[in-house]
Amino acid sequence: MTKKISTGLIQQLQAAVGPAGWSCDAEVLAPLLLDQRGRYQGVTPILLRPACTEEVSKVLRICHQADIAVVPQGGNTSLVGGSVPDEAGNQVLLSLSRMNRIRDLSIADFTLTAEAGCILASLQDAAEAENLLFPLSLAAEGSCQIGGNLSTNAGGTQVLRYGNARDLVLGLEVVFANGEIWNGLRALRKDNAGYDLKQLFLGSEGTLGIITAAVLKLFPRPNHTETALVVVPDAEAAMALLRACRAEVGEAVTRFEYMDRASMELVLCQIPDIRNPFAEVHDHYVLLELTASHGGEALARGLETVLEQSLGKGRVIDAVIAQSGRQARDFWNIREGIPEAQRKDGAGLKQDVSVPLSRLPEFLARARPAVAAAFPEALIVAFGHLGDGNLHFNLNQPHGMDAESFRARGPEIHRLIYDIAVEMEGSFAAEHGVGRLKREELRRYRPAVEVELMAKLKSTLDPRGILNPGKVV
Ligand code: FAD
Ligand code: ZN
Question: Does the CB atom of residue 83 touch ligand 1 within 6 A?
């Protein structure tokens, strides 16, 4: 059990990080203590902002000795309550935001070594400046941090081609619960010397160690992009289109996103300056992007071939191929505008589930009527990363119902959707992690042997339970 923080201990922590490395100012703290969805409001006596790995180590050594809980925070965009302290006021908030140096960018190794507090977009920019690509890309990239991305194994819109955050890491530097520093910043593409320890920390949401830096993979930068917004008759046709694209242009298929009618209608209604690329609104859309480093004309031809053939087979109803970068951006603004449009429209119940690709149409065919039957007044808003089998199957508040009564239906609706996904060998937490929000679900849906092993790992790496307690396990 972690303890209360004494004044003496606060002074020790302040000394460990120096005058620029802490704050107790309520105004500074306020935005960092609220989970972005507004569901969790934490309390802390102190925010620590260490400037280097050694300072993180000092902080953890002090907290470990005194049994004080530490909550690491990146950009606070993960939406499951993982990055904010609890309400009791005895947990230290550890922000990595001052550790935002790029330590190295090696063109010869195709690697970038970055500190945990680097904003994701700044790493993309650094790679671009060398005509290289760091492919992790998500709508929160202007504010989320690489340490947070790695701790949640973030996905984003290019998983289809480049994998999740986990797949982009060669090495890690981690500070353990007792303050010990593990320098695993190896830039090796192949290394089979024992267990792959970095994997433990990737996706562990700050419960096993504090990630302070990482060696990340860089890729050749594609210089040809084809983007198309496609109307399909149903999810089955969308998946057939994915297979047809892959058969035609192979690994060039980089993004493959889905939007339903409600998604499009909400964006058109709630987000200014968004234009409907078609004459009417349709039931199912795919937004796809192909990229390649060479053979731009072949890529364009490939896309046209696939769309024409799919039209012929009735698997595509209509399609617009972006004629400029600007038009492609317009299409992406529709897709990326959905969360904001949902927010503007009212309260939401949000799910990030995944199923095997082959079962996505079946998932939609079952979840939609089941949810509609359970809650006919609510608006279903389904969109997401179709190419990864990962959907946001959300509900929006019926107009006329108050947000409170709507949210009260949450547990029942979540359960309904998770049950369907898990029955189909899917996941109840495909994207945002477990945090505080889905601990019950972890116990409910994962085999006991798996949950027990997680608990054993936790108690081995963090025997006093000071790292982000109350989250995940
Ligand atoms: P935080 O929210 O600050 O922290 C996340 C968790 O990691 C917390 O448990 C925290 O305690 C822990 N943590 C943070 N930093 C460290 C560290 N250095 N060491 C150890 N633990 C740490 N996610 C996706 O996967 N795919 C998407 O497409 C996607 N799109 C999004 C779009 C929007 C608009 C928003 C708001 C979120 C989206 N997310 C998505 C979720 C979110 O952006 C990611 O989970 C992101 O990786 C979180 O990064 P962060 O820096 O904000 O982490
Ligand atoms: Zn998503």
Answer: yes
Reply yes or no on domain 346-430+438-449 having CATH 3.30.70.2740: yes
Ligand 1 within 6 A of 210 CB? yes
3 state SS for the chain: CCCCCCHHHHHHHHHHHCHHHEECCHHHHHHHCECCCCCCECCCCCEECCCCHHHHHHHHHHHHHHCCEEEEECCCCCCCCCCCCCCCCCEEEEECCCCCCEEEEECCCCEEEEECCCEHHHHHHHHHHCCEECCCECCCCCCCEHHHHHHCCCCECCHHHHCCHHHHEEEEEEECCCCCEEEECCCCCCCCCCCCCHHHHCCCCCCCCEEEEEEEECEECCCEEEEEEEEECCHHHHHHHHHHHHHHHHHHEEEEEEEEHHHHHHHHHHCCCCCCCCCCCCCEEEEEEEEECCCHHHHHHHHHHHHHHHHHCCCCCEEEECCCHHHHHHHHHHHHHHHHHHHHHCCEECCEEECCHHHHHHHHHHHHHHHHHHCCCCEEEEEEEHHHCEEEEEEECCCCCCHHHHHHCHHHHHHHHHHHHHHCCCECCCCCCCCCCCHHHHHHHCCHHHHHHHHHHHHHHCCCCCECCCCCC
User: 44-84 pLDDT, tens per residue?
Assistant: 999 999 999 999 999 999 999 999 999 999 999 988 889 99
The answer as to CATH 3.30.70.2190 being correct for domain 224-339 is yes
Ordered by start, the domain boundaries in the chain are 7-98, 102-220, 224-339, 346-430+438-449
How many A from CA of 354 to the centre of ligand 2?
11
**Domain 102-220's class?**
alpha beta
Could you read off the pLDDT of 409-463 as tens digits, one per residue? Answer: 999 999 999 999 999 999 999 999 999 999 999 999 999 999 999 999 999 999 9
**Which of 83, 168, 169, 176 gets mutated to test ligand 1 (max ligand atoms within 8 A of its CB)?**
83
